[in-house]
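Researcher: Sequence recovery benchmark, item below. Answer with residues only.
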């Protein structure tokens, strides 16, 4: 029981990280020493394991997928996500500039953290990094901040977003930001929008089962190039988390990043520049503290 409670606490830490763009639940799993077992357990949910259910061998199925471990970790994650969702919703509505600045510090520092995995730079790495940044920035600029709320897109968001959980350094919330679904999903969690949560959860389940093998293969065969592309995505996505924006079309959710001075002129509101700088530094510091703890635990 003590082991399962400790696993649940680690899950709570992972859930808290996954709610915040820039901090990865995979990183927390790595720091707390459960990353490899988590990846192994997820990968074990395959056709062979599922066939045990149809044969009525439920105990064998539970043992095959390391069920006690998974249920402990994911229970902790769910507790954390549902606990923090209302706080995130409140901050997004009443304190958006400090919050987005905090996110910006997290994402920017995470990109630096990820790039430190590259031991020897090559031209292909630079090309992958620049390509990732350009693609992400383009997506952020041409796509609306609020995408369709159709169930097929919610399902797709779950499929793609959950994959970040098994990638140290890449946040699931960051992926939802790119897809324009972060605020929507946070709102769905805080208001217990059951249909949306069920569709998203199904997508997440399909995604983590389908892509866990592919992502581990990709990282094994093309580790440094993959890391560069992911870091590029994070750098390019800073356009998305820029705190000051000019709304071009409120109905379609289209906006553009502007300077703090322009924001004051257009909206008549205080740019909160000092608060933005402070929260940006706090966000960046958290990532480097997490990295320091990870290295200390490795040693």
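Model:
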């Amino acid at each position: 029981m003590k082991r399962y409670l400790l696993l649940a606490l680690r899950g709570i830490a992972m859930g808290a990280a996954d709610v915040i763009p820039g901090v990865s639940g995979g990183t927390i799993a790595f720091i707390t020493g459960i990353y490899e077992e988590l990846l192994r357990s997820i990968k074990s949910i395959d056709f062979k394991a599922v066939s045990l259910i149809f044969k009525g061998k439920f105990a064998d199925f539970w043992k095959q997928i390391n069920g006690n471990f998974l249920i402990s970790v994911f229970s902790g994650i769910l507790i954390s996500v549902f606990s923090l969702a209302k706080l995130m919703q409140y901050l997004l509505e009443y304190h958006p500039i400090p919050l987005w600045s905090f996110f910006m510090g997290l994402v920017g520092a995470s990109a630096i953290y990820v790039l430190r995995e590259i031991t020897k730079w090559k031209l292909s790495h630079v090309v992958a990094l620049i390509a990732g940044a350009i693609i992400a920035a383009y997506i952020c600029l041409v796509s609306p901040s609020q995408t369709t709320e159709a169930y097929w897109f919610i399902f797709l968001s779950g499929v793609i977003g959950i994959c970040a959980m098994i990638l140290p350094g890449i946040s699931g919330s960051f992926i939802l930001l790119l897809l324009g679904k972060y605020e929507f999903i946070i709102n769905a969690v805080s208001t217990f929008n059951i249909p949306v949560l069920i569709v998203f959860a199904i997508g997440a389940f399909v995604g983590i089962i389908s892509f866990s093998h592919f992502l581990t293969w990709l990282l094994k065969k093309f580790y440094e190039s993959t890391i560069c592309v992911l870091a590029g995505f994070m750098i390019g996505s800073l356009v998305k988390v820029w705190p000051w924006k000019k709304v071009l079309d409120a109905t379609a959710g289209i906006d553009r990043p502007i300077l703090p001075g322009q924001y004051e002129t257009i909206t008549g509101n205080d740019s909160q520049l000092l608060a933005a700088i402070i929260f940006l530094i706090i966000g960046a510091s958290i990532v480097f503290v997490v990295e320091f703890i990870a290295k200390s635990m490795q040693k």
